[in-house]
Amino acid sequence: MKLQRARVVITGVSGGLGLALLRLLVANGNFVVGCARHKGDLDDKDIKSFHFYQLDVSKPKQASYLINSAAKVLGAIDVLINNASVTHGLKNTEEITPKEVLYCFRNNVFSTFNTLRYTLPIMKAQNNGLVINISSRCGRRAVPRLAAYCSTKFAIRGITEAVAKEAAGTGVKSISISPSGINTKMRSDLFGADESKKQQSPERVAEVLYSIMSGDIQVPNGADVLLLKEKEPILKVPET
């Protein structure tokens, strides 16, 4: 799928990778609908450059409103990027509370199911569309003291593969992206600012994602793209 004035929906655009993606897409002439629970690092220039919805896609009714509004505003949905994500504090598994587990799954996994539930029928009717679910390297290789967060990222890859197989032959493609550490506020809050600064920038990850969307990097349906700092993207094709 070549990215030419594409109509894109992104969740979690208030900072980090979501904001970097938003700015890159807009700068290249694409049309974006984005959402977040708060404005975060979005400035006035950002707000004027795209259609912003301040809502929570972990809630089915709000996810429905976002996707249906996007379809009306944009006329179609070419790309859905499920980027919204949260984590919990560093704790051994037995110390993580049920509330923290539910918090991670509600925002990282349920949100993805919700947007997919309303987007996939639109894309299948178009016989065209690209779903990009943002996982993490810790969705391939778990990190100690982040069991709940890691398990949500493993789940994202499972959802991605299932959708890819279900959508085979429809013109709809589903892939996931698994970046290693990114220098974001979420990472800084977990591991400290000095450690976070050693990671890859959200802008670099956004550029690779843009190359995938534009077709410059070819990714098979259902595949996961492992993105390590200062290395070429590594394609991980799912088992058949």
Description of the structure:
With 240 residues, this protein is of the alpha/beta class. It has a single domain (7-236), classed as NAD(P)-binding Rossmann-like Domain (Rossmann fold). The protein is built from eight helices and eight strands. It has helices at 16-27, 44-49, 60-74, 98-126, 147-166, 185-191, 193-197, 202-214, and strands spanning 7-11, 31-36, 51-54, 79-82, 129-134, 172-179, 224-227, 234-236. It has an eight-stranded mixed β-sheet, with helices on both faces. Strand 1 (7-11), helix 1 and strand 2 (31-36) form a beta-alpha-beta unit. Helix 4 (98-126) runs parallel beside helix 5 (147-166). The radius of gyration is 17 Å and the shape is globular. The mean pLDDT is 95.
